[in-house]
Amino acid sequence: MVVAAPETYHLVKAEAPHPLVAAALDQALFERCGIERPVPIHFLPKPRWSGCCAALEDTREGELELGDHFLNPGLDENERLDRLTLVYLHEFAHRLTPGHWHTAAFFAVNALLLVRTGDEHRRPGHGYLLRLDLYDLGEWDDVSHCTRGEALDWALKHAQELAETKMSAEGAAVEILTRYEKWKAWKAAEPARVAKARAKREADAQLIGELRSARWRWAAVGWLAGVVTILMPRFL
Predict the structure, then answer these.
(1) Interhelix angle 77-96/104-117, nearest 10 degrees
(2) What is the pLDDT of residues 21-32, one digit of tens each?
(3) How far apart are the first and last CA of the chain?
(4) Residue 36 in contact with residue 169, Cβ under 8 Å?
(5) Cα distances (angstroms) measured from residue 58 to each of 14, 42, 50, 65, 174
(6) Helices marked H in the chain
(7) C-alpha–C-alpha distance, residues 164 and 178, integer Å
(8) Strand 51-52 and strand 64-67: pairing?
(9) What is the Cα–Cα distance from 228 to 9, expressed in whole angstroms?
(10) What number of CA atoms fall less than 13 Å from residue 204's CA on the CB side?
């Protein structure tokens, strides 16, 4: 049996961005998000809304891989615009948080980008931030002694705080990663803090008990001294 060599496909750089890309990922979006260094997109034949952020060493220019399903003209254009924006920013957040999958740090960076999109200009009532879900926080337990709710609160707090600054997206991501490592260390030390606080409470309780006991002893001594003082003259 003769086996033919496998077919091969080679990516070719487009002379101009696809119209959908030009509409969704325009200069105005990057300025609102504070993105100073947008990364290229490689569209690959995948029949679904999907994206991938490969390790930087496995790329040529740090490019992101997206399914060419986004470019299907038979699908609703608004839906394609929204999904392309969401997936690009999701994968770009991965590029800014290497070594993190869906940790609270990644979630915070992704949320920051979505807050900054100011997406109400496109489809009022369809906030991009509301499209985040717990899948994007799948590794919340990367932080010791932490609940999912704590991780979510931490991520949203820092995303909102930094989204309102003039920091670039890249700079804000560095700041979030720095804060995340400090938070991880602080949470890791939580059992020691709890044990120390418990020991202090127990020591305080013991001291209070001893002081109360001493107070009654001294009160008894004082009472006896008073009795002796009153009765002593009668026996002299």
Answers:
(1) 140
(2) 999 999 999 999
(3) 133
(4) yes
(5) 21, 13, 18, 12, 22
(6) 19-24, 27-33, 77-96, 104-117, 148-163, 169-188, 190-231
(7) 18
(8) antiparallel
(9) 110
(10) 6
Q: Looking at the structure, do residues 162 and 209 belong to the same domain, yes or no?
A: no
Q: Quick one: 203 and 181 in the same domain? A: no
Residue 183 and residue 207 in one domain: no
The total domain count for the chain is 2
d(CA 114, CA 194): 37
Domain that holds residue 204: 199-224
| Residue 90 in tokens | 């999701």
Residues 6 or more apart whose Cβ sits within 8 Å of residue 197: none
pTM above 0.85, yes or no: no
Q: Give the C-alpha separation, 128 to 136, whole Å.
A: 13
Alpha-carbon span 124 to 85, nearest angstrom: 16
Residue 89 and residue 76 in contact, taking contact as beta carbons nearer than 8 Å: no
Q: Given CA atoms 174, 179, 184, 185 in this order, what sign does their dihedral have?
A: positive
Length of the chain: 236
Which amino acid is present at 118? G
pLDDT digits (tens, 9 = 90+) for 137-160: 999 999 999 999 999 999 999 999
Instruction: Say what angle helices 77-96 and 169-188 make with each other, to 10 degrees.
Output: 60
Which neighbouring-strand residues pair with 51?
66
Which residues, listed in sequence order, are joined to residue 64 by a DSSP beta bridge?
41
Distance CA 66, CA 41 (A): 7
